[in-house]
Design a protein that fits this description.
CATH superfamily: P-loop containing nucleotide triphosphate hydrolases
Number of strands: 10
Number of helices: 9
Strand content: 25-35%
Largest sheet: 6 strands, mixed
CATH architecture: 3-Layer(aba) Sandwich
Strand order of the largest sheet: 6-7-8-3-9-10
Helix content: 25-40%
Bound molecules: adenosine-5'-diphosphate, magnesium ion
CATH topology: Rossmann fold
Order of helices and strands: EEEHEEHEHHHEHEHEEHH
Number of domains: 1
Structural class: alpha/beta
Distance between the termini: 30 Å
Radius of gyration: 18 Å
């Protein structure tokens, strides 16, 4: 589903990604961990075209992202992204937040878009919130709306960038629960998170990024209990 070969990304003279190569299978859940500033967000942003790679190759959902002929708007329909800050449209209702993409971008008729949105609201446990505005919801509820909004486009892959980091602790579980259900259904997911419980329980593979490179990767059970690299060991010692 995702193939990354020798991905480099610089901002000016500053090389942030220094040659990332990895692949993600269909239905695989990959958890990305690593110190702040190691390039995790930049990596995810490259995967959905929010940043342009400086060099290297990215294939995702059947499209070659690094081919200049690839339609980036089309690609984004296939690659959903959920951010730390939920970025909901404050002046739109919950239902409108979910339907605006399908209606404007995919030209889905209103009735059909509303039907899909209601199904997704049920899936994320927010039946009855259709007419509310984002400010009227808790952080955990807003993040679940953001997940429903991404799913409304019918993506093949979902990218999550620290989706629970901005939440009060009591709301973390409800968001992880929705993500877990999505994984169980077979969604292909790349998740940047330091929620190690989620990584252990849901992740098929954990990737440790440090200073713009993948330093080590493996099944959570192996990587957490028997890290090979000193950098991985010292990072895990801080977060486990
Ligand atoms: P992480 O998500 O692992 O904390 P990021 O990918 O956000 O790391 O950032 C890695 C480095 O890239 C940081 O030093 C950050 O300042 C830099 N960076 C990220 N985005 C930009 C940008 N748009 N312009 C310049 N530097 C950036
Ligand atoms: Mg980040």
């Amino acid at each position: 589903m995702i193939n990354v070969r020798d991905l480099h990304k610089s901002f000016g003279d500053n090389e942030i990604l220094k040659g990332i190569s990895t692949h993600v299978e269909e239905k695989e859940v990959v958890v990305v961990i690593g110190p702040s500033g190691s390039g995790k967000s930049t990596f995810l942003r490259c995967l959905n075209g929010l940043e342009t790679a400086t060099s290297g190759e990215i294939e995702i959902a059947g499209m070659t992202l690094t081919d200049p002929k690839t339609n980036i708007h089309k690609l984004r329909q296939h690659v959903g992204m959920v951010f730390q800050q939920f970025n909901l449209f404050k002046h739109l209702t919950i239902l409108e937040n979910i339907t605006i993409g399908p209606r404007k971008v995919k030209k889905i008729p209103a009735a059909e878009a509303n039907r899909i949105a209601r199904e997704l609201l049920a899936k994320v446990g927010l039946v009855g919130k259709e007419a509310n505005y984002p400010d009227e919801l808790s952080g955990g509820q807003q993040q679940r709306v953001a997940i429903a909004r991404a799913l409304a486009m019918g993506p093949n892959v979902m990218l999550f960038d620290e989706p629970t980091s901005a939440l009060d602790p009591e709301m973390v579980g409800e968001v992880l629960q929705v993500m877990k259900a999505l994984a169980v259904e077979g969604m292909t997911m790349v998740v940047v998170t330091h929620e190690m419980g989620f990584a252990r329980e849901v992740g098929h593979r954990v990737v440790f990024m440090d200073d713009g490179l993948i330093l080590e990767e493996g099944p959570p059970s192996e990587l957490f209990s028997n890290p090979q690299r000193n950098r991985t060991k010292s990072f895990l010692a801080k977060i486990l």
